[in-house]
Specification:
The structure is a homodimer. The first copy, chain A, is an all-alpha fold. Chain A has helices spanning 2-15, 20-35, 42-49, 53-59, 63-87, 92-109, 111-118, 125-152, 162-182, 192-204. Chain A has two domains: 1-60, Homeodomain-like (Arc Repressor Mutant, subunit A, Orthogonal Bundle), CATH 1.10.10.60; 63-204, Tetracycline Repressor, domain 2. The first copy, chain A, starts with a helix and ends with a helix. Chain A binds chain B through residues 33, 36-39, 115, 119-120, 122-126, 128-129, 132, 160-161, 164-165, 167-168, 170-176, 178-179, 181-182, 192, 195-196, 198-204, and chain B through 33, 36-39, 115, 119-120, 122-126, 128-129, 132, 160-161, 164-165, 167-168, 170-176, 178-179, 181-182, 192, 195-196, 198-204. Chain A binds a DNA duplex through residues 2, 13, 20, 41-43, 46, 51-58, 62-63.
DNA sequence: TCTGACTGAATGAATCATCACTCAGTCTGG
DNA sequence: CCAGACTGAGTGATGATTCATTCAGTCAGA
């Protein structure tokens, strides 16, 4: 009995929305987004999460690991959602449209997270390289595979390098997100995906 | 006689490639590119420029101002080059092709500068917003104006928002540059402009 | 031409505020 | 009472910036 309760507690504390770890990650996202990673003090994160400074170190090895965790958790989730979303579809164009929409939808739904992804994670080659090695490359690969599939079925032009073309698409979406953050006007991010996909698909269709 | 010699000396020390200010800027670009802005010590920059720590402060108010100066100097130069390059051209498509090539040519010619532009300048919303207000917006506007011109002459589709479309183009080029930096393989950046422009122009042409 | 006063660029050791991280101790549920 | 989650004051390192000092070069007067 006691045993199972402890396991539950552990589980909640690891994954649940009431857990300290989650709470620290959410707080850190907010703090990083507001001040920038290097200007954020661990003490600020602790205060925002309503825990003591030391508690942060019970859950994360270092300040840097917090940033990593924010990225890891979200990119893995995004890729999983993306794969699931396109599983039932057959038209490569539609697959890309859905992925693009999901991409901007997710970032548009949480401005703080978007800032961390678009701004803070870019702030050092070290991070860029580490991150690119992991989830980022996987995301690009997801796009690339769809493009290749479309080339095989002659939906997309075959004279283009799929890898390069997937970067073009990613770059266009990425810029939409970055501009949305910088701009202080209040518009919806996700509809931008339609315009991007219009131009892009028109450009790569056979 | 002596007087004119002094004026020459002053002029060289302000603008010439042998001047300390220039030398500090070049050194800073290298150091920022290697270590990242926040991990770079002013002392590192001073050593790389072969001057004393304090000398840096005779030319720049702060470490931050050094980063600003690197950006300001280069973006202004890039925009001027771009405008000059397209002045004699009439076809909007050709104008965009030339600008895109110039964009990647400049970054591809100086990896350190590219790292500062693609990575270090992105590392804080504060920088992003300040920079976007100045030169970056002007660059986007340059693209936008060409697109609008092309729409008027029915070269480009009129059903697209020129501002958004210019961001798509910028984002695609930007991603080429960023990927070139992250990737450790040794390829030329500038030819990527052709592929980008192929897809892009195909996508926006009427 | 020589000399002594003057200038201001350049120096780099010292200052001082800032944090990431630690750890000795407290609290609490069972 | 115990285990272990949690606390938060303290520590040590770091690094941007300052400023008293040096010294190479300029200049004016004799």
């Amino acid at each position: 009995m006691i045993h199972s309760v402890r396991i539950m507690a552990k589980k909640i504390s690891r994954n649940g929305s009431g857990g300290k770890r989650e709470s620290i990650l959410r707080a850190a996202t907010r703090v990083f987004a507001r001040n920038g990673y290097f200007n954020s003090k661990v003490a600020d994160i602790a205060r925002a999460a309503d825990v003591a400074d030391g508690t942060v170190y019970l859950y994360f090895k270092s300040k840097e690991e917090i940033l990593h965790s924010i990225f890891d958790q979200n990119i893995a989730d995004a890729i999983a959602s993306g794969r699931k979303l396109i599983r039932a579809l057959s038209d490569p164009r539609e697959k890309l449209r859905r992925i693009a929409k999901l991409h901007l939808e997710r970032l548009g739904a949480d401005r703080d997270l978007a800032v961390v992804f678009q701004v803070e994670l870019r702030g050092s080659t070290k991070f860029m390289e580490e991150f690119s090695a992991a989830g980022f490359a996987e995301y690009l690969d997801l796009l690339c595979k769809i493009l290749e599939e479309g080339q095989r079925s002659r939906v997309f032009r075959k004279d283009l390098n799929a890898k390069v073309v997937s970067k073009i698409l990613f770059g266009a979406l990425d810029e939409m997100a970055t501009n949305w953050i910088i701009s202080h006007r209040n518009y919806k991010l996700e509809p931008m995906a339609d315009i991007v996909m219009d131009v892009f698909l028109n450009g790569v269709s056979a």
